[in-house]
Design goal:
Layout (H helix, E strand, L loop, with lengths): L1 H9 L10 H28 L4 H8 L15 H24 L8 E2 L2 E2 H8 L24 H7 L17 H5 L31 H29 L8 H23 L2 H4 L4 H6 L1 H24 L2 H33 L14 H9 L20 H19 L2 H15 L1 H5 L1 H13 L1 H4 L3 H21 L2 H13 L4 H5 L5 H24 L7 H11 L1 H18 L7 H20 L3 H15 L13
Antiparallel strand pairs: 1-2
């Protein structure tokens, strides 16, 4: 991670900074502080996340503390901690390599990290012992004393979930988990219940300590999911979405649509390579992964409001077809005009000249990327329709899971899997985490207040950006290629060649939305101002922007003179004008279209009412 980040920043011409004792001291402090911060959150996660607690309980099951207790850990726990440490400490080391030192150097005493050596001399090794060593009230707000860590092992209720820190107490102080003893306290160690009653030794053998936590972890997760499902069913209005969360989803949707536009405009054939960095960053593909997560959230929400399979199908079909049908017609017209004006503006990789019959059949059925039905097809210049082909598959699979039962559900799902093919199925997990955000987000935030929500909301995005700056996206695609070798992974997965990285994006965005949803639910309702209305307006045309911009860019590239002043700006403004004008005609009046179609349906099929509540999507 550190050297990958250094390569990303430095490049071929990187000249390492001069290494001095002062800089090495600064690097030592930075790495120790970042490491300790990571250890705090990893330790806290093992206590507060029910899936992780059984593995950490092996450590806490010690009835007597000795210096050897520090080694009493389940082998999975250090692996989980290492994942967190690798990411954030690697980032810190990479930045210090670039800005401060040319090589990984830290102050040592006798070969040990100087900071850890000094901390241990203060009695740190007595943390797991019966020897009470306190640093005093003031210092115990800065450093974790052996007495504080012994309190962490106490079964008393007042000591539960306190003093997670390893070296520094400031993290506990900052995040509300600090406990500073006034004087010596008589402690009982071990694992207890919620009332502070000490349990009998839960891991009496080595085999029990190794394997029983896996069983307990699964049981805990299932219990939490059952509880969350029960709470959801007990709510008076399970489909409620707060104003703030809805606005944030619209902001992300608008931003993702514009990012796709900018990423495609950055093609050399459109803007002559002036914005090639956007292509190098692959922002358009990443933005589509964001779309999938947002779609999962919104469809899960909408399906609850729909209530029945009929209403669910009606709302999905009208939402798609009201924009898809005119977008396909516009693609045919724009491609015909553009290829007549300048065929060189339509290079083969970005334009497929398919027959009208195949264009309409594969386009209207959205099976253009369903490889189970045949080879994939690019519909003229409208490459972005590939993701809509995936979306249809996701809607059908989700609808079958939600509304069908028994053998019918299994038969329909198996049929869909065979028809859809590997490309769409590879990104189904990325879409489904959005469903999870809507239906189970409270599992991660219930009872933990705003601090955890802020960690999710901010920390997930920071982690995602740092991973994007590293070699992780390329490494994950290389891993995919190796797994599918000797076959070409592009040929098998088509637009899903970065499925693993897209799933990482989806998980990070899902955690972000979990935090934002909790925070937004606690914000007061407000009258939306100009900025909020602008966000809503752009988001209200984002579907049209996504489906129409690529044929529009090709047409303008074929017809606009290259000598036009401010060419790139004109290209952008004309594209936005056409796309949002299209949205005004076909996307924004969706409620009116649905009302007309619903009225017609009720007249021709009154015996098949589309019952249920209104949906937003």
């Amino acid at each position: 991670m550190a050297f990958g980040l250094l390569a990303q920043f430095g490049g071929a011409d990187y000249a390492p900074p001069e290494t001095t004792w002062m800089r090495i001291a600064v690097v030592t402090v930075i790495v120790v502080v970042v490491s300790d911060f990571c250890k705090y959150w990893a330790h806290r996660a093992h206590h507060e996340w029910k899936a992780l607690w059984p593995f950490h309980a092996v450590h806490h099951s010690a009835d007597v503390l000795t210096p050897l207790t520090v080694q009493r850990v389940h082998p999975l726990e250090p692996m989980i901690n290492a994942l967190l440490m690798t990411l954030f400490v690697g980032i810190a080391q990479g930045l210090t390599l670039y800005f401060l030192v040319g090589e990984l150097s830290m102050l040592t005493i006798g070969g040990a990290n100087a900071a850890y050596f000094l901390f241990n001399t203060l009695g740190s090794n007595f943390r797991h012992s019966h020897i009470w060593i306190s640093y005093g009230r003031v210092m115990e707000h800065i450093l974790i004393s052996p007495a504080q860590h012994q309190i962490h092992h106490s079964v008393a209720v007042k000591h539960h979930d306190k003093n997670y820190g390893s070296i520094f107490a400031i993290w506990d102080w900052m995040f509300g988990t600090l406990y500073v003893p006034e004087s010596y306290e008589d402690l009982t160690f071990g694992v207890s219940d919620a009332k502070g009653q000490r349990r009998e030794q839960p891991y009496e053998t080595l085999g029990a300590a190794l394997f029983k936590p896996f069983v307990e972890s699964v049981e805990n997760v299932l219990a939490v999911l059952r509880k969350a499902r029960g709470n959801g069913q007990a709510k008076a209005d399970p489909a409620r979405m707060s104003q703030g969360f809805s606005l944030w989803l619209d902001a992300l949707r608008a931003g993702a649509a514009l990012t796709v536009l900018f990423g495609h405009m950055a093609h050399t054939r459109f803007t002559r390579g002036e914005y090639q960095f956007l292509r190098d960053w692959n922002v358009a593909s990443d933005a589509v992964a964001v779309f999938f997560v947002l779609s999962g959230v919104v469809i899960a929400y909408a399906a609850e409001r729909d209530g029945t399979l009929g209403r669910y199908a009606f709302n999905r079909i009208t939402r798609i077809m009201s924009v898809l049908v005119p977008a396909l017609m516009l693609t045919l017209v724009f491609d015909a005009v553009g290829t007549s004006a300048d065929i060189s503006a339509y290079p083969a990789p970005y334009y497929h000249d398919v027959s009208l019959g195949e264009f309409l059949w594969r386009g209207l059925t959205l099976t253009n990327l369903w490889t189970g039905t045949g080879d994939w097809v690019r519909l003229g210049t409208n490459g972005p329709i590939w993701s809509l082909s995936y979306e249809l598959a996701f809607y059908l699979i989700f609808g079958a899971v939600l509304f069908l039962k028994g053998a019918v559900r299994i038969a329909v799902l198996l049929t869909l899997v065979l028809l859809v093919g590997p490309p769409a199925l590879a990104l189904l997990p990325a879409w489904w985490v959005g469903v999870w955000v809507w239906r189970h987000a409270s599992v991660l935030t219930a009872g933990h207040g705003r601090s955890r929500a802020w960690v999710f909301a901010v920390g997930s995005i920071v982690a995602l950006v740092m991973m994007k700056m590293s070699s992780i996206p390329a490494d994950l695609e290389a891993f995919t290629a190796r797994m599918l070798a000797p076959h070409d992974h592009h040929a098998i997965l088509v637009y899903s060649n970065e499925a693993l990285w897209n799933t990482v994006i989806a998980v990070c965005l899902a955690l972000h939305l979990v935090g934002v949803r909790y925070l937004a639910d606690t914000w007061p309702q407000r009258i939306e101002g100009g900025l909020a209305k602008t966000v809503r307006w752009v988001a209200g045309g984002s579907f049209s922007l996504y489906l129409v911009h690529y044929p529009t860019l090709h047409l303008l590239d074929a017809t606009l003179p290259e000598t036009l002043p401010a060419y790139n700006l004109v290209l952008l403004l004309l594209t936005l004008s056409i796309c949002f004008g299209f949205a005004t005609l076909f996307e924004r009046p969706i409620r009116q279209y649905r009302a007309v179609l619903l009225n017609i349906w009720e007249r021709i099929a009154p015996h098949l009412p589309l019952t249920g509540r209104r949906s937003m999507s």
